[in-house]
Amino acid sequence: MVSPVTVVKSEGPKLLPFLKASCLYFALWLPTSSPSWLSALVKCLPILCLWAFLLAHGTRFLLAQSAARRILAGLVFSALGDAFLVWQEEGYFSHGLLMFAVAHILYSSAFGMRPLNPHAGVAVGCVSVLSYTFLYPCLSHPFTYLVGVYVALIGFMGWRAMAGVQLANDLWKWTRLSACLGAGLFWVSDLTIAIDKFCFSVPYSRAIIMGTYYAAQMLIALSAVEGQDVEASRKRG
User: Fold this and answer.
1) Which pLDDT value is given to residue 10?
2) Mean pLDDT of 136-149
């Protein structure tokens, strides 16, 4: 089992561009009322840095790890979703929703169907139903259906991420724990978006949404890096 210290030493330097880009977003805090290509670039830059993070592990790594390729593809669709949401008031919110829906399908595929862990599925399913029940009175056509499908997809992704964390076996295997935490933060981010857009204004919503979102994407990207890859880096060091 790879220790957290080894993970930080191995992967930390590769994540520095992402951390700097995230800090840049919050430092500039460009107004959402005036969407521009600059604001889209600043918003997408941390996700582009996560592309670079995975690519930095080399072509051999990506060719050998199908999960890493799917997560990289999910990050591509996430960046497209981020760009569309910059212009959401101009009617591109549903476009962004579609891009993130595709990203969740790719993430689910990356996490796989083993172990099945039906108990985790029931727990996530209950949270999904409760969340949609809460949002439903605030929704109008076509979002009544679009949000319902999206909740199902992110719920499925959360189940597959949670299912990999086995209490009796390797709870602290960092890739699985990273995926689980990332999915949970993604859920918090998207639920905050939905409440703020459709129900009522959430105080500090933008900070909550983007803070949890960037952390979620970082953790999901980290989950693509296999433990043996980090162990190999440790031995070389």
Assistant:
1) 81
2) 96
